[in-house]
Amino acid sequence: MSRKFLIVGVFLSLLATGAAAQDRPEDLTLERPAILEAFRLAERGQLSLTDLARVKDHPLAPWVEASHLRRRLGSAPDADVRAALRRQDGQASGDWLRAAWLQHLATNRRWADFLADWRPIDTLEMRCAHLAARLATGATDAQWIADGKALWQRGESLPEACNTPFASLQALGHIDAAARWQRIELALLAGQGGLARFLARDLPAGDAKLANDYADFIDSPHARASGWPKDARSRAVAAEGLARLARRSPDAAEAQLATLGPALGLDEAARGKVLYEIALWTVASYLPGSRERLEAVPRAAYDERLYEWRVREAMNRRDDAGALAAIEFMPTAQREDPRWQYFEARLRERLGQSDAARALYARAADTATFHGFLAADRLAQPYALCPIEPSSDAALRARVARHPGVVRALELFAIERIGLATREWTALLQVLSPEERKVAIEFARDAHWYDRAVFTIGNTPEDLRHYSLRFPLHHEAVLRRESKRQDLDPAWVAAQTRAESAFMPRARSHADARGLMQLLPSTAERTARRLGLPWTGAESLYRPELNLELGIAHLRHELDGHGGIAYQAIAAYNAGPAPVMRWNRDRPGFDPDFWIETVTYRETREYVARVLAFSVIYDWRLERSAVPVSERLLGRTVPAAARRQFTCPTPNAPGNTP
Q1: End of a domain among 302, 331, 346?
Q2: H/E element, 322
Q3: How far is the C-alpha of 631 from the C-alpha of 653, rounded, in Å?
Q4: Same domain, 539 and 628
Q5: How far apart are CA 657 and CA 383, in angstroms?
Q6: What is the mean pLDDT of each run of 10 residues along the chain (658 residues)?
Q7: Whether 60 contacts 408, CB under 8 Å
Q8: pLDDT at 649 (0 to 100)
Q9: Same structural domain for residues 266 and 161?
Q10: Which among 19, 180, 479, 604 could bridge 575 via Cys, Cβ 3.0 to 4.6 Å?
Q11: pLDDT of amino acid 526
Q12: CA distance 357 to 531
């Protein structure tokens, strides 16, 4: 090649590199040590003006300044705080600083300053403080009265900042006995018996006694209720108390309803509320009398959940005709969900109605859902999948890449200020168009902030078709290696990881499950010992490689413990082995799809279906063809020729996607 052409080639390459760089947010890696040091000083209250000046041109300088001032609100000059609020007005960092500043002013009862710096903040604490500030400065106009009365009418305890405004409202005659009774009733219907008793103290003695009796009934229904006034309030409290009792003891609620219903003249709506809970908490454990109690609930009291349980109850009794009738009893919109289209087809097929079954299978199979995939298997046809990608428009992508909020959010995530990054991201979503949002999520994915797609992509059919965003694949080499070592399908392992943590290595649940595969420390320690690995404590579960090694080994352990039956291993991974043993005991010989649908725990029922559906998506990502779900849920391997291909059956997106 001649030197001339070589130079031209290098020049064009540099141009291409520059164009690509404009298509991505600015890389701030080299500036990271300086901004981290500035944050460290700010968060200790040790940041000087010189320190701040060193990073004044950095995109995160406003967050450094806000962090510094929040740390020093008790000593920082008001002028400094207000100057920062002006500079950062409309930014997430400014809103964060302002909320702390207003709380500081309210705590110190600096009400005039509070009002001068006020911006609406929709929390109860701030709404109460705003009410108190207006009262203290004499701004008690008609709007103040309306705002105070609106706050009063809540069935929950309110911050102490509301006490003085409420006392003033009461003195002015705007909180009378009727208003107090209204709030007591709201508290009772919210199960807040303690609040109801507190509010009752300012009622006349007879009314206070009745209110306390109502509160006692909400906590523990009693026979005295038969002597209550036969009015709407007594009936509402009785229905609420019995409905709450039904969640603990359906039998006790049914017995009391038989007595109190006639005594208080409960109408169909009130009775329906109680009968609903009696039926739900009976059938949710498939207790004796489930069918009869479901039949006793008025149709007007049914909701989507009870319609579903009506189907499961019949399935649990192996009553195919009854289950089909329960599906036919559903509202049309619910019945047309792919889940129920599939089960209606299965039931009709089992009842010999093959043509009707095939038509229903075909409709369900046009959706990229667990039940859509199962329906496609019944028809031996490809899986419906119509993926779309974020916009490739260069101008749009460059605009998003340069957006200050995008740059700030991604850099805050990179330096592990996750709370601040989330605040910045939340503010960002308010100003981005749907197309811009998808590109921003792509940038977040590339920065390993995978859960942005899970939590913020949206729920329209088009949103859900962004499979490459919604189903990340990270640590693939380790995932494949450990899956091979444990003889597990990597698509299944990826699906399990996505369902557990969305591939966020530092995910942690309320139950203290940690890391990519959400392992409890106790489970991880047992698994490590079984593998002969050193155990260095719960914090080690945030190391992706170790978490995958232990999590995949634990999944293999569950699979072995359940006879190689994958859907039961998935259920055990979520709920533990004891419930799975119980479900097998209670429903021996159930077909896998019916077994999954009749699982009593909603979380586990949905989890198993979700992991199996996600496995198809990861098959698409990894192999471009899929193990049939009907084979995967049994843990079977299939030859390459038996794998499902993918097709987009219509020009439009499927209505339901995993």
Answers
A1: 302
A2: helix 320-328
A3: 26
A4: yes
A5: 12
A6: 40 40 84 96 93 95 97 95 96 97 97 97 96 95 96 96 96 95 98 97 96 98 96 98 98 97 97 98 97 98 98 98 98 98 98 98 97 98 96 96 97 97 97 96 96 93 95 96 97 97 96 97 97 95 97 97 97 97 96 98 98 98 96 94 91 55
A7: yes
A8: 82
A9: no
A10: 604
A11: 96
A12: 48
Alpha-carbon span 185 to 238, nearest angstrom: 11
Give dist(CA 168, CA 545) in Å, integer: 61
DSSP secondary structure string, 76-97?
A: S-HHHHHHHHHHTTTSHHHHHH
* Residue type at position 270: A
Residue 18 lies in a domain: no
pLDDT value, residue 15: 37
Residue 383, H or E segment? strand 383-384
Q: Which residue has the tokens 């305890």?
A: 157
Q: What is the CATH number for 586?
A: 1.10.530.10
According to the model, what pLDDT value does residue 23 have?
82
Q: If you ran DSSP here, which 8-state letter would residue 541 be given?
A: G
Q: Does 132 share its domain with 254?
A: no
DSSP state of 382: P
626 and 509 belong to one structural domain: yes
Residue 332 lies in a domain: no
Residues 6+ apart with CB under 8 A from 126: 99, 102, 103, 106
User: Helix, strand or coil for residue 647?
Assistant: strand
In a domain, 248, yes or no: yes
SS3 at position 265: coil
Residues 290, 156 share a domain: no
**Which of 589, 585, 580 minimizes the C-alpha distance to 561?**
580
Question: Domain range spanning residue 250?
Answer: 240-302
Return the structure tokens found at 337: 């969900």
536 in any annotated domain: yes
How many other C-beta atoms are found inside a 10 Å radius of the C-beta of residue 290? 23
Q: Find, among 350, 343, 388, the residue nearest to 370 by Cα.
A: 343
Q: Please name the residue that has the structure tokens 């499950």.
A: 513
Q: How far apart are the first and last CA of the chain?
A: 52
Q: Which pLDDT does position 290 carry in this prediction?
A: 98
pTM of the model: 0.91
Cβ–Cβ under 8 Å, residues 155 and 190 = yes
Domain closes at, from 165, 194, 227: 165
What is the reported pLDDT for 6? 37
Tokens of 192: 């807040």
Token pair 């900042």 in the structure block, residue: 161
Residues 501 and 613 in one domain: yes
CA distance 3 to 82: 61
Percentages helix, strand, coil for the chain (3-state, rounded to 5) are 70, 0, 30
And the tokens for 94?
């400014």
Q: How is residue 652 annotated by DSSP?
A: S
**What pLDDT does 657 receive?**
65
Q: How far is CA 518 from the centre of its chain?
A: 16
| Residues contacting residue 333 through CB under 8 Å, at least 6 positions apart | none
Question: 165: buried, middle or exposed (CB in 10 Å: 19+, 13-18, 0-12)?
Answer: buried
Which residues, at least 6 apart from 497, have a Cβ–Cβ distance to it below 8 Å?
479, 503, 516, 517, 548, 551
Count of domains forming the chain: 3
**CA-based nearest residue to 85, from 108, 122, 116:** 116
Distance CA 147, CA 124 (A): 12
DSSP label at residue 519: B
* Contact status, residue 456 vs residue 441, Cβ threshold 8 Å: yes
* Same domain membership, residue 586 and residue 485: yes
DSSP assignment string, 10-74: HHHHHHHHHHHHHTS----GGGHHHHHHHHHHHHTT---HHHHHHTTTSTTHHHHHHHHHHHTTT
Tell me, yes or no, whether 502 and 593 share the same domain.
yes
Q: Which of 184, 224, 227 is nearest to 208 (CA)?
A: 184
